């Protein structure tokens, strides 16, 4: 479930930034720059793409327009490849037709004119060997330390199995090659939807039904942007609990999960006194949902007391909902009377098993909730892609004296400032009136 990687990039300043102390390492010890993001678009050019049911146009013409717009808007550092299936063999020999897949643009820096020219010549022709094309696309992208993405655009189910595309997707996921497949369906067919949803779920990707040229273009752009913005760190898969007790224990890092509509997912994070927990969550809206929706991230104590709830951290995108929070554990040297995160008796929250003392970490429960509901006819399984980013850093020191945040001094300063302003305004008014009368 490696889908939702745009929001983690948007919140990185809030969640992952710490001061770098000491001299910089020698040039020989510096890590090499990360490899560029890599994505391959896989387009179905089988005979069914002739159908004219998208805005009165053929499916292939809509796909070609979307490809052109995506190529024009492609970020300079993204390496893009294009593979097609069912594009060259017009005959009826299934054995030959089910081998019909070619890479027409190799993965690498894109020559925009060359890429658009290659797509413009495509004409709907043959069979639909989706499984074979996915396997070949994975080979096109190769392997590496960062995530690769395949964006599959098709209007029909595989007509050539074996290999079954769902089994191919599971096979690719099991290889641990950091590969995500996002699927886009161009036909309102339930069998196609189930197959594409299966492919996406197996690799941690997303499924979207595109019913217009605008939807198709916008979604492809979003997926390419996601490959660009989130490829640097592959999330670890985790399954949230139904309650805090027994929920998975998480260290700082990036995690991926799935959450159903109106569900709550729980996780636990150990935080030592004097440390600050920073967390963000993003949920990808990979299917049609009703309006008036949201996502909530809260931190609670194990006994259910709410410590803090997250603030909305939207990125301006319509396909992702995000929220983030910060919470500091009380420092053991602080005055117990001024703690606002502990119980009334001044004690901290539940310590981690096996540790004791004033420096023992306490367990903070994170719960992700959503108020999403599916539109009519929208599938609810699997759950929507969730990405959770967690960091634990040293707490920032509180403000030194004079502490305006304490309240009373601030109130006194505001009162004095108001009196002086009123007095000055009165004197100026009297002077102006006396001058005007003379």
TrEMBL record:
Q: Which region is the signal sequence? A: 1-28
Q: Name one Pfam family in it.
A: VWA_2
Q: Which organism is it from?
A: Micromonospora echinofusca
Which keywords label this protein?
Membrane, Signal, Transmembrane, Transmembrane helix
Chain ranges of the VWFA domain: 38-227
Q: Where is this region: Disordered?
A: 323-358
Q: Which residues form a coiled coil?
A: none
Name under which the protein is recorded: VWA domain-containing protein
Regions of biased composition (Acidic residues) lie at: 331-353
Q: Where are the transmembrane segments?
A: 408-433
Query: What InterPro entries would the database entry show?
Result: CLCR (IPR051266), VWF_A (IPR002035), vWFA_dom_sf (IPR036465)
